[in-house]
Specification:
5 helices, 0% strand, 160 residues, membrane, DUF212, transmembrane helix, mainly alpha, elongated, 2 domains
């Protein structure tokens, strides 16, 4: 394996930003709910957006290495805008639709149960619900973006 990959600072900053943003979701959730939810480390959605942290960390690192006028910075910046728009738009709306569909399915199951006196069987597996936390609120995307930018700035200004 070529170890030069481990010297790719923009890649390392982007990866660290994802891990940091995913980890920090746990204490933020604890402060809001007083519940520790370790599954947030591997879940989508939530505060801050790890997608936004990753792409802005990558883009900021590329700006440090190649300058704001470089074509690769332009590609990274457009990539960042698309990812953040998608996270706060399409994916967020898909999560909202999933929540409504889950409720409709529950209501339909209740209707069947009431109409037919459907017996509950022991060991009957619960139907898996659609994932509702797919995207981000704009504030989650914003703070994710700031997270990535700050991680890149700290890396380049203090560590390198």
């Amino acid at each position: 394996m070529n170890l030069s990959l481990l010297q790719n600072t923009p890649l390392l900053v982007a990866l660290f930003a994802v891990i940091f943003a995913q980890f920090v979701k746990i204490p933020i959730h604890f402060l809001m709910t007083r519940q520790i939810k370790w599954s947030l480390f591997t879940s989508t959605g939530g505060m801050p957006s790890s997608h936004s942290a990753s792409v802005t960390g990558l883009t900021t690192s590329i700006a440090y290495e190649t300058g704001l006028s470089s074509p690769i910075f332009a590609v990274a910046a457009m990539f960042s805008f698309i990812v953040m728009y998608d996270a706060s738009g399409v994916r967020y709306q898909a999560g909202q639709h999933a929540a409504v569909l889950n409720q409709l399915r529950k209501d339909f199951q209740t209707l069947l149960h009431d109409l037919k006196k459907w017996p509950q069987m022991d060991g009957q597996e619960k139907m898996e619900e659609l994932k509702t936390l797919l995207g981000h609120k704009r504030s989650e995307v914003f703070f994710g973006a700031l997270t990535g930018i700050f991680i890149a700035i700290i890396t380049y200004e203090l560590l390198l």
